[in-house]
Amino acid sequence: MNPTALSVNVNKVALLRNSRHLGIPSVTRAATLCLQAGAHGITVHPRPDERHIRWHDVFDVAELLRAWPGREYNIEGNPFHNLLDVAREVAARGLPVHQLTFVPDAIGQFTSDHGWRFPDDAERLRPVIAQAQALGVRVSLFMDPDPDQMAAARAVGADRVELYTEPYAAAWADPAARAAQLQRYREAALAARAAGLQVNAGHDLNRDNLTDFLRAVPGVVEVSIGHALIADALELGYAATVQAYLRCIDAAAAGRA
Ligand SMILES: CC(=O)[C@@H](O)[C@H](O)COP(=O)(O)O
Ligand SMILES: NCC(=O)COP(=O)(O)O
Q1: Which terminus has fewer CB within 10 Å in the chain: N or C?
Q2: Considering the entire predicted model, what is its pTM?
Q3: C-alpha radius of gyration, the chain, whole number
Q4: Domain ranges of the chain
């Protein structure tokens, strides 16, 4: 069992599919191949404009995961758009959804680029977190790596935080900048765990930067990876790509042991 779960984000498969009306590449086929290769879960981030994941994909992937007990379904999005309605419908159909990752994206946003801010977001997040948890779903909050924000994330009821890793990924090629970023993430993860939160991470993680991150940042329970992984799969195929990412995770665990 790997110490950090790999959840494959299949947004970019849907993006390619949506450029024609032929239904290829198939999002569920991609997810199946990733699960067969050992991925621990599948992530989708349906955006209101359906530029990649469409609403039917959310249900199609949930149907798929019903046949994969033990693997997790993580749905990301803004709870103040229609993420909660979709989660309710998934649950009403008796389909699995294990985790909702709340992301403070604007409608039409290019990609996610920041986390929730406390105290500003506290009062509006508290009820939607409770509503998601009432469905039996774990809630993770997408957060910048700021140690001072972690106790507040726990105080509004979150189960986990997902540390937004783009600043780390952008700094990775410069050793000094990388070390400084890793220190920041390490402190944020320690603060999150001290507050009683579990720690996820994601955004722009890839085969080059993943192992260093997991070596330096303790106790990351899940990474969700999409853009780079799907780009790698275009060259290597899904199975070889997922296995390569799992090796990155294993290498980090070996380095820590
Ligand atoms: C929350 C997060 O970091 C990812 O879900 C990322 O936003 C992917 O979204 P896109 O694939 O639309 O860029
Ligand atoms: N939560 C992050 C995610 O699902 C994938 O982000 P990226 O690897 O596409 O940047």
Answers
A1: N
A2: 0.97
A3: 17
A4: 5-256
